[in-house]
Amino acid sequence: MLWIAVHLPQLSLESFATTVNPIWRDRPMALIESHRITQVDARAAELGIQQGAKRATALALAGDLVLGQADPARDAQALQAVAYVALELTPMVCIEACDSSGAAVPVVLLEVQASLRCFGGFTRLVDHLRRALQPLGHSVQVASAPTALGAAMLARWRRDLVSGPHSVDLGALQCLLDAAPVWLLGPGREHWEALQGMGLRQLSDLRRLPRSGLARRFGTALLADLDRARGDAPDPREAIICPNVFEQRIELFTRADTAEQMMAGARVLISRLVAWARVRHARVAAFTLRMHHEAHRLRDAHSSELAVGLAEPSIDATHLASLLAERLARTPLAGPALEMSLHCDAVVQAAAPNAELFPTRGAEREGLTRLIERLQARLGAEGVQRLALVADHRPERAVSSMPAQSAIASNTAPSAPTLDGGPVRPLWLLREPLPLPEHGSRPWLDGTPLQLLAGPERIESGWWDGDLAARDYFIARTLDGALVWVYRARLPLSEPDGAGWFLQGRFA
Amino acid sequence: MDLSPALDVPAATAGKPAALQLPPHEPSHGQRTSKHSAAERAQAFDFANIGLWRAHQFDTARKGVTATGFMALDAELPGGGWPHRVLTELLLPHPGLGELRLLVPALSRIAGAGDASVPIGRSVMLFDPPAALCGWALAQLGVDAQQLLVVYGREGARGAATLRRMLPSADLLWALEQALKSGHVGAVLAWLPLRLKADALRRLQLAAQAHDGPVFLFREVDARTKPSAAPLRLLLQGAGIDRLSVRVLKRRGPLLTQPLELSLPRVLSERLRQRAEAKAQAAVAATQQTHSSVEASR
Q1: For a FRET experiment, which of A6, A236, B60, B224 has its CA 20 to 30 Å from that of B29?
Q2: Given CB atoms, is A409 within the 8 Å cutoff of chain B?
Q3: Nearest by CB: A379 against B93, B151, B238
């Protein structure tokens, strides 16, 4: 067995950073617990703020320090997303949010022995893992070992190493562990001072002592952990199962007033959504963003929903984010948002997209669908329309358009019309026929008389849908030679202002 | 008169120092002139590759064109057709002159004729057209109406028409730029308002470089005096029934002073057309007669 452990030393701080207003992102940040600083980011550390410092001290060192509180639920959601990414590589993934003593040490463990060949060896697999973790934006420490606990300990050992120690066989792991400090063992932390006082610094010191005495002093858990880490005792683990529905929420540290502020949090949620969809080998067909708004009065407390549907399911995070951003930009927010959650249960099983070297028709159609989606996200569904041919003799009914769904035209429209030699129709049709004045029994357009060239072509009836038409159509020419399509209404009685000449279209 | 075509340098290469390099001077100049004439040397040096051409020649560096379907027009356009990856500006006094019938042969080449036997064509996007497009008429002219996508700015379908004529909608320009940048559209037709900033046009011109197909911008005649980044500008005017007069205002090539007369795909049958012409002549004669009789009575 080969376990890879991914330790996320800054998880609480990073998950807190996603909830912060994006304009504060470049300010120093720290987490605080009962008036003591528990975690600091690189900027705050540069300013001299250390773990365990008092709140007042920290604020004196950095006036613009953003102080947040660790939230186990928030951390668990972030860790869940890391586990989704890991599930891409192997089905055997387990989450260790805290060690057996209860201290929060977020680690995700993967058993990858069976996946090595598929991903082209250990180095490539670790590279793949790192690349896949990148969109989530966490700093990670990776280590590998033949035992799960051993890998977790190695990953937590050295903070300065981006890639922790890797050991392939049990002997190498035991050698490494002998040199490891005692505090790596979970329960060791409780008795840290006692162990220190006894001069026990490394695991090898601990191992040299009689087991019964150790068990009596420090409990059996310490020895059990040591045995499991070294591979002397079995360490059964339970793999996590990917849920069928994606649901994650972010409680915002600062309220979001604008779409950009919403998007800062939503981007993180979308990258987690994509990780989830990848595990299920599916593409996202639709998702919903729920926003909980600030209430001025108690009864005002409300939430709103923004549903985004895709014409063509996709697992491209940037595409999903751009669609949501366009929708958010044109939807007025009901109020400042305090909390948002992303919900997705509409996925479509599909093969992974093929990367193509040269542009092809298929790629172009997919790109066009995305373009249409992006345009519709901003302009509304009515903003991009496709012409539809309707078999009707009345020109205003024969031409209609409907919102374009995807790059591929629907096949419901009548097939290629056989109008060769049929009546001619103008390319431009006015949305509303334009009434024309009549002087000397000739219609006038723009102050000049029209010369009727061809016609009349009588278009009549339509009693079945209440849109009765009785018109004589003529092709007429204007002074500069342009051809227009005009008609004379033949039913002046039915509509009082419907008599006389009208301009219907232009032969463009 | 627009004198810019000869001075125009393609935007793609304008920034590069290569465009400014002149044909290399050979050190043994005196010896070589006897063997090679200046014209030969100029020919040996590939002007086209660095985006330069001589004012009396056509720019032959054009990467792709779509034939216009009109022999006379093809002969006058650099590369022999509607250029790809650049803007083409069509100025016309009012919509309905026959401007679409001018483009129909090219569009049917791009979109296909809607025939099942022909492989599916590429799509054509229309931005803010002045009126509804009749699919049947397009099908009659041999363009697959299913490939057409019509995009309206947010206030497009319902907004104040007069205002829209004057000021471009930011949404529409954004959409146009997105469509051009994506490179997935076969052809783009856009009706742009009069008061369009020159930098907006330049932006579109840059975006068009990713677009492998022609881009037609329809603007009013008044835009003629305004600077434009489009390397090809044509002025369209009506010239009788089913005829269109095309004047090349700007092209990458020599100046063309004579307008071209094109006969468009026909609306009227030959018999009707002749009758109409006869009627028109009769009307003209009648007015002249009345004028002369009025003058005689005076």
Answers
A1: B60
A2: yes
A3: B151
CATH 3.40.50.300 residue spans of chain B: 65-271
Q: Which residues of A107-144 are buried (b: 16+ CB within 10 A; e: fewer)?
A: bbbbbbeebeeebeebeebbebbeebbebbebbbbbbb
Name the strand (E) or helix (H) holding A37. Answer: strand A36-40
Strands A163-166 and A246-256: unpaired
Is the Cβ–Cβ distance between A202 and A182 less than 8 Å? yes
pTM above 0.80, yes or no: no
A379, A384, A475: residue with CB nearest B268: A475
Q: Give B-chain residues touching A447 at CB under 8 angstroms.
A: none
Interface check for B215 against chain A (CB to CB < 8 A): the answer is: no
**Could you tell me which CATH number the domain at B65-271 has?**
3.40.50.300
User: Which CATH fold would you assign to the domain A246-352?
Assistant: Dna Ligase; domain 1 (3.30.1490)
Nearest to A371 among B178, B267, B283 (CB): B178
| ipTM reported for the complex surpasses 0.85 | no
d(CA B205, CA B55): 22
A348 at interface of B, judged by CB pairs closer than 8 A: no
Q: Does A237 touch chain B (CB under 8 A)?
A: no
Q: Kindly identify which residue of chain A lies nearest to residue B154, measuring between CA atoms.
A: A379
B97 touches chain A (CB under 8 A): yes
